[in-house]
Write the structure tokens for this entry.
Amino acid sequence: MKLQEELLKRKIKFETHKAIFGQPDIFIKPNICIFADGDYWHNTEKSKKRDKEVNKVLLNKGYKILRFWEHKINSDVKKCINKIEKSITRLKK
């Protein structure tokens, strides 16, 4: 939610839970997939394996993937958003 709130403040358009492989938490057209990984669940071996597979499939399909750990979002959401903005800027070039 913190990422979404900050994206809205910065007037960055996005969709939530896009129906593509891995179902990114946030999707920014044309191809940025953002995942907010919970510190507990995404730190299990099963989740790490699944996240790796999701990354591989999406990268092979031409998507840009950004993953942010829960503790990073909570400690400095603006830094996370700045990284997203840099990715958007690179796409426009």
Notes: Helices lie at 2-9, 45-60, 70-75, 77-92. The chain has a mean pLDDT of 95. The first strand starts at residue 15 and ends at 16.
